[in-house]
């Protein structure tokens, strides 16, 4: 899948106005959501996913509107309905990480009323949900955006390859047994609006909250602390506006061009409303890890530490 996107920034005092404008533009109501976002660092040396026994996804329900059409997925027989489901995207992900190590994210949708307040006697402490291993989460991998445009300047519209594997159980365990190490976590606050006439066109107002230091060390905390104890990553509370368009078929340049044109049209139509989309360095979005190589000095002296470049 390809993701093309524009980026702008919205001050906290302008948030309500910006959300109202986007809702009117899309003829659709915003969908406010909270996400628990866990960051995992891949192994020092790239390798494929050798251990897959814990992979267990929730099988997607077949689309009832597709029944009877060519290529439609038929309902599962009752005997197979409870069988382990492995999303085909896991194979694609394994092929990618065997060539290059990355930082990946595991995302869980959470509720302010239920999932926050644990460990401090908050209102959600007695209503905590299942452990993360038993909750459906999503694995996200993103490539560094494609290089600057042919014209020589950095493109306003970024485009990158992306993998999203939704509704996965045991996600932290699968990553851990394949040598992905837990790195950090954030709480993401988002307000998403989808265009009524083009559902592939998505607008997201996003900002992030950091957990207290006592909840961030070692491993993902369970449960989350009170929401009021979180600290905004940006002290001013500024929001990032993402305007995204997804192209499912990587090998369809005409669809990628159409998506780019659609985003530039959005840029032009929202400009009178004060949205100022920024040209950013593509390295801001780089999730690749530098390889830890053995130098001749290491091989000769048997040193444990690397004399070459390590992880970023």
Description:
By secondary structure, this protein is an alpha+beta fold. It has a single domain, classed as Hypothetical Protein Pfu-838710-001 (Beta Barrel), CATH 2.40.320.10. The chain is built from six helices and ten strands; from the N terminus they run E-H-E-E-H-E-E-E-H-E-E-H-E-E-H-H. The protein is globular and about 50 Å long. This is Mediator of RNA polymerase II transcription subunit 18. Keywords: Activator, Nucleus, Transcription, Transcription regulation.
Chart the SSEs and their pairings.
Layout: E1 2-10, H1 15-26, E2 31-41, E3 56-57, H2 89-97, E4 103-110, E5 137-142, E6 158-169, H3 171-177, E7 181-195, E8 198-210, H4 213-216, E9 231-232, E10 239-247, H5 253-270, H6 296-301
Antiparallel strand pairs: 1-6, 1-10, 2-4, 2-7, 3-6, 4-5, 5-6, 7-8, 8-9, 8-10
SSE order, one letter for each helix or strand: EHEEHEEEHEEHEEHH
Overall number of domains: 1
Q: Give the radius of gyration.
A: 21 Å
What characteristic shape results from the CA principal axes? globular
Strand content: 25-35%
From the helix content, strand content and strand pairing, which structural class follows?
alpha+beta
Largest sheet: 8 strands, antiparallel, barrel
What's the total count of β strands? 10
Number of helical stretches of at least 4 residues: 6
**Low-pLDDT regions:** 294-312
Walk across the major sheet and give the strand order.
1-6-5-4-2-7-8-10
Q: What is the CA–CA distance across the termini?
A: 26 Å
CATH topology: Hypothetical Protein Pfu-838710-001
- What is the CATH homology-level superfamily? Hypothetical Protein Pfu-838710-001
CATH domain class name: Mainly Beta
Mean pLDDT: 84
| CATH architectural label | Beta Barrel
The percent range for helix content is 10-25%
Main location: nucleus
Protein name: Mediator of RNA polymerase II transcription subunit 18
InterPro entries: Mediator_Med18
Subcellular location: Nucleus
């Amino acid at each position: 899948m390809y993701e093309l996107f524009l980026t702008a920034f919205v001050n906290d005092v302008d948030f309500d106005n910006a959300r109202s404008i986007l809702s009117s533009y899309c003829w659709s109501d915003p969908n406010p959501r909270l996400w628990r976002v866990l960051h995992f660092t891949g192994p020092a040396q790239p390798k494929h996913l050798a251990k897959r026994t814990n992979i267990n996804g929730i099988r997607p329900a077949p689309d009832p509107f597709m029944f009877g059409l060519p290529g439609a997925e038929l309902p599962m027989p009752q005997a197979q309905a409870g069988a382990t489901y492995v999303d085909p995207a896991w194979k694609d992900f394994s092929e990618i990480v065997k060539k290059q190590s990355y930082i990946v994210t595991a995302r869980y949708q959470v509720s302010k009323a239920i999932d926050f307040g644990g460990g401090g006697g908050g209102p959600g402490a007695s209503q905590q949900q299942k452990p993360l291993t038993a909750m459906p989460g999503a694995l996200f991998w993103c490539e560094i955006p494609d290089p600057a445009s042919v014209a020589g300047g950095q493109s306003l519209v970024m485009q990158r390859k992306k993998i999203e594997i939704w509704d996965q159980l045991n996600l932290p365990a699968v990553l851990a047994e394949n040598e992905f190490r837990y790195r950090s976590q954030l709480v993401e606050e988002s307000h998403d609006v989808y265009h009524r006439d083009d559902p592939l066109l998505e607008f997201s107002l996003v900002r992030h909250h950091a957990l207290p230091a006592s909840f961030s060390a070692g491993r993902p905390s369970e449960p989350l602390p009170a929401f009021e104890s979180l600290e905004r990553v940006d002290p001013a509370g500024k929001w990032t506006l993402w305007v995204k368009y997804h192209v499912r078929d990587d090998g369809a340049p005409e669809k990628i061009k159409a998506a780019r044109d659609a985003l530039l049209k959005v840029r032009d139509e929202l400009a009178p409303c004060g949205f100022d989309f920024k040209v950013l360095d593509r390295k801001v979005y780089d999730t690749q890890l530098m390889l830890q190589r053995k130098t001749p000095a290491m091989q000769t002296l048997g040193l444990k530490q690397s004399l070459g470049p390590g992880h970023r």
